[in-house]
Design goal:
Elements: E1 27-33, E2 39-40, E3 44-47, E4 54-57, E5 67-71, E6 96-97, E7 102-115, E8 124-127, E9 137-138, E10 145-152, E11 160-166, H1 189-194, E12 213-215, E13 218-220
Parallel strand pairs: 1-4
Antiparallel strand pairs: 1-7, 2-6, 3-4, 3-5, 5-7, 7-11, 8-9, 8-10, 10-11, 12-13
Length: 241
């Protein structure tokens, strides 16, 4: 007789790290792990140093501009460790994408991840860049690198599984500092400003009509006044004769 189990430590009541929460309009690409370390499910993936088809695990020197997505869980992926233990007594069931293997990377869509410090729905997402949780995600109050166009879908407590939405990683590093840019730094901007129309100015094309019009038989192009007599409009004397 089968036994139904509804409580799993790894599941945490919601889902597994790296599990896609929906298949709607998800954008998943395949990249070869060219790094020296494995890439765990549900952790951030960056571009590799090799060709454009390569990737690596997020590291302490990575920036938001390096990020290409989140590693998606693969049910066909074998564990790199023996789950029943080895000669050293290691029973850590460490399942990830080992170096040299191809990684399924979610670039756009929704996925379950572990929130290190917790977050609220709509919060921005940061990547942990130090310690054992490197590559995992957290909310705006945590320490890490902030991602662009990525947010938490729901409230999630620290250490629990929550859902994030990747709208499209723009590869622009988020920063709180400002940068000064002069007019001359932008090509063609000064020339455009020199040709601009002042707020109280008159456009050259507004001083003369492109096509002259006739008023009471007199040509009028807007450049000068015209005189119209009573006879031009067929006016009669006030006496009516």
């Amino acid at each position: 007789m089968a036994i139904a189990q509804s409580n799993f430590n790894k599941l945490r009541g919601v889902g597994y790290e790296g599990m896609q929460s929906t298949i709607d309009v998800n954008d998943v690409l395949s990249r070869r792990n060219d790094g020296d370390n494995g890439i765990a499910f549900g952790r951030v993936v960056i571009r590799g140093d090799g060709d454009q088809r390569s990737c690596e695990a997020f590291d302490a020197n990575a920036t938001a501009a390096d990020v290409i997505g989140v590693a998606v869980r693969s049910l066909a992926q074998p564990s790199v460790n023996n789950p029943y233990g080895n000669a050293s007594g290691n029973t850590d069931y460490d399942i990830n994408y080992a170096p040299g293997q191809h990684v399924s990377v979610l670039r756009r869509g929704r996925v379950y991840v572990l929130s290190v410090d917790g977050a609220s729905a709509g919060d921005t997402v940061k990547v942990i860049n130090t310690g054992d949780d490197i590559g995992r995600l957290t909310g705006p109050d945590g320490e890490g690198v902030e991602l662009n166009q990525v947010h938490w879908v729901e409230d999630v407590e620290a250490g629990q599984i929550g859902e994030i939405q990747l709208d499209a990683l723009l590869h622009i590093e988020a920063t709180s500092s400002s940068q000064s840019v002069s007019v001359n730094d932008v090509s063609g901007l000064q020339d455009a400003l020199n040709k601009k129309l002042d707020v109280d100015g008159t456009a050259a094309s507004a001083t003369k009509l492109a096509n002259a019009r006739k008023i009471a038989g007199k040509s009028f192009d807007g450049t000068k006044d015209i005189s119209i007599s009573a006879s031009d409009v067929g006016a009669q004397p006030a006496s009516g004769s």
